[in-house]
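Lab notebook: predicted structure, single chain.

Context: the supervisor wants predicted structures on file for every construct in the current expression panel, including those that have not yet been purified. This is the next one on the list. No modifications to the sequence; it matches the entry in the shared construct table.
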Amino acid sequence: MSAPSAAARVAVVIVNYQSYEDLQDCLASLGPPDPAVTVCVVDHASRREAADEIERAFPHAHLLRQQSNDGFAAGVNRGSRESTAPYVLLLNPDCVASADTCQHLAAWMDAHPRVGAAGPRILNGDGTVQASARRFPDFTTAIAGRSSWLTRVFPRNPLSRHNLAPSRARSDAPRTVDWVSGAVMIIRREAFDAIGGFDTGFFLYWEDADFCRRLEHAGWQTMYVPELTVRHAGGRSSRHAADASLVAFHRSAFRLFWKHSNAATKLLAPLVLAGLRGRLALMRRVVRRRGH
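Prediction complete. Output recorded below exactly as produced.
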């Protein structure tokens, strides 16, 4: 295990949960060791033999073995403290980048000093574009968000276009968006520290939307940079705890609603909670059917 370099410009933070095979591919995709880049893997619910294998294959990566699983946001904050690099690059273990991804993203951030966070174009495993740049959730997101039935079956409907328009644009020109996915997100250290990092009250899901909203409130921009591309399989860690992941998704959705609502909007909380509970019940039935 190598110690983080004080001269690094980019600190890559990977929060891993039981995804060791994907993690190997992710680390390999970053190329050989680079003194300008540190790599920290926060390994939740660490398995000794699998973690040992990662350390042997990638001795330059700093592996933090955690016996518990404290959630994605807590893992990001923990990993970010291992370096003082001016940029933190969040990378899911089921992502495949390239050897120059870190340097290109850092150079882009250097040229845009008011940007607190940015995300590249993310491709699904089949090469299609993942809707990773979005508008902040509103009451249409429950039925027309990225993973909703309506979006999957009728992807060009007006409500889905409203929610996912930033990712669907064909242009490669960078543009300001509400939020970008934490699966691949480069963050300016100054901005990260200014708002206190990620909110650990989000165990899994929606912490990235909350983070970008707090950046906006603090005067920082979030931008989508589709000229740069990373491939992301998606959902590989959550498959190890499918039901718990569904529950976490809906709990985090309600936390996001409550946290960023004004007093008047909070009066609708019973309706929002009932809707989320109904959606959770429906999604559980769908998952059970797929498992049979």
